[in-house]
Specification:
This protein has 17 helices and 22 strands. By secondary structure, the protein is of the alpha/beta class.
């Protein structure tokens, strides 16, 4: 009996191949050579890549036996996950392999910005000995503000505690208990901006966080503040930061990520008090080896028919065919829940009702949690680390099934109880032969709205003119409405609008104020 074939398409550590073990035939190819890659993929069961090999739709189509694509790293920009999922190919990565490296680089950039290390290095190598010009500041007894208290943010907090720093953090989804364990005081964004001597960013890149550290935020900081970003490019507005540093409103900065990459030109590069690196967060030998070993282990599990910890999609034979189409729906319901609730629940019930309960739907708990945390944490969320994030934030999840579903053949409801006792619920279903994903309930209101990438959900006092006002403001902002539905209960109503483009935070605030909304949520399901 022939062994499964694993294709290694880029240079990986010897430990990666060793971790595969003797049960596989291991082949090698230069993944950057397109012709050689496509030919080599014809009869392989798994392929291991890093960042240079493009596993797009054509490459996946060429691999007729392919079951697993393993990316030895965090990002998946070079892997067409949707095409892989349609082809039944599992995609795995190593989401936690680089967290220590990223945290350590954060500390390094913070120290470099505090002590002007890069500028002094360049000056001395250029023949200048100017000690007074490059005097810096100590970390002892200074306040560091951490934006995002996920895994990397927590590691940074632990390390900076050793420097004798006071640590504050802003993260609406972090539990006070978890923050307390880390010795971190949770504060509002404005408090963090005004109190901090150093600010470090560890947030996911979402429509809400894009440009978060921009002109408005930088107008609230101390002129002695130093800002570090090793998370995602674009969260810090680079042009606004460059102006603030040049004008003396910010003392310095350290950046490893940029809105556009690769980049070799930026107004920040001309500033001596700014230290920059070319996205080196995961670039350590240890991180690369950890990533290789992790994905090798995942390949063994996948080809052995086991549950794969770091799968970013679901293509497991252990999941019934009838259950698979509902997984993306439940994931999206999790994202909608987070947008509507604005918080992580203390208790989340995944209520599955109808014909689908004749099959095992345990994976829907994972799908719900994956969606719940996708726009909450900085780290990539998978079906294995989603329960870890839930545990860290004190979120208990339960599966409730009932063969009776009422109006629909099957319906899934995520019902969450927040820490203040508020109950939030969202419901969805698949309809018709094409299994169209629909939102069929929010907070007790009955609806039937096809899901779209961009949606608005708002509750208001039922009175004439509300929808007209919303339409006028969106029209003035050049945002086109694709569909809408209103549901009413007594003197209250809820509106759900599908729009063709993302709605910026400022426009959402304007809309909410204009209609005096009881609640107003922006839902962005675009990957």
């Amino acid at each position: 009996m022939s062994k499964p074939v694993v294709l290694v398409a880029e240079e990986l550590s010897p430990a990666t191949v060793e971790a595969l073990g003797p049960d596989f035939e291991v082949r090698h190819v230069d993944g950057t050579n397109r012709e050689e890659l496509l030919a080599a993929l014809a009869d392989v069961d798994a392929v291991l890549v890093r960042s240079a090999t493009k596993m797009d739709a054509d490459a996946i189509a060429a691999a007729r036996r392919l079951k697993v694509i393993a990316r030895a790293g965090v990002g998946l920009d070079n892997v067409d996950v949707q095409s892989a999922t349609r082809a039944g190919v599992m995609v795995v990565n190593a989401p936690t392999a680089n967290i220590t490296s990223a945290a350590e680089l954060t500390v390094g950039l913070l120290l470099a910005a505090a002590r002007n290390i890069a500028a002094a290095d360049q000056a001395l190598k250029g023949g200048e000995w100017e000690r007074s010009r490059y005097a810096g500041v100590e970390l002892l007894d200074k306040t560091v503000g951490i934006l995002g208290l996920g895994r990397i943010g927590a590691l940074v907090a632990e390390r900076l505690k050793g420097f004798g720093m006071r640590i504050v953090a802003h993260d609406p989804y972090a539990s006070p208990a978890r923050a307390g364990q880390l010795g971190v005081r949770l504060v509002t964004l404005d408090e963090l901006l005004s109190e901090s001597d150093f600010i470090t960013v560890h947030l996911p890149k979402t429509p809400e966080t894009l440009g978060l550290v921009g002109e408005e935020a930088l107008s609230k900081v101390k002129p002695t503040v130093r800002i570090v970003n090793t998370a995602r490019g674009g969260i810090v507005d680079e042009a606004a930061l460059a102006r603030a540093v040049a004008e003396g409103r910010v003392a310095g900065a350290g950046l490893d990520v940029f809105a556009r990459e690769p980049t070799t030109a930026s107004p920040l590069f001309a500033l001596n008090s700014v230290v920059v690196t070319p996205h080196l967060g995961a670039s350590t030998h240890e991180a690369q080896e950890k990533a290789g070993i992790a994905v090798a282990r995942s390949v063994r599990q996948a080809l052995g028919g086991e549950l794969v910890p770091d799968a970013v999609n679901v293509a497991s034979g252990l999941i019934a065919e009838e259950v698979r189409p509902g997984i993306p729906l439940v994931e999206k319901l999790g994202r909608i829940f987070t947008a509507v609730a604005g918080a992580v629940p203390a208790l989340l019930d995944v209520e599955v009702r109808g014909e689908i309960t004749a099959h095992g739907v345990d994976v829907w708990k994972l799908a719900a949690l994956k969606g719940l945390f996708t726009d909450v944490v900085e780290d990539p969320v998978t079906y294995v680390n989603a329960p870890v994030f839930a545990e860290q934030r004190g979120c208990v999840v339960r599966l409730v099934t009932d063969p009776h579903s009422g109006d629909f053949r099957s319906v899934t409801t995520l019902r969450g109880t927040l820490t203040d006792g508020t109950v939030v619920s969202v419901s969805g279903t698949l309809t018709g032969p094409r299994r169209v994903e629909k939102l069929v309930g929010v907070g007790g209101y009955d609806l039937e709205v096809p899901l779209s990438d961009h949606m608005l959900v708002f509750e208001y006092s039922d009175r004439p003119g509300i929808i007209g006002t919303v339409g006028r403001i969106l029209g003035d902002a050049d945002v086109n409405i694709g569909g809408m539905q209103v549901s009413r209960q007594d003197d209250r109503a809820i509106g759900v609008l599908s729009v063709d483009s993302a709605v910026p935070a400022a426009l959402a605030v304007e809309l909410s104020q204009a209609i005096e909304a009881k609640s107003f949520s922006v839902v962005d399901l675009q990957d």
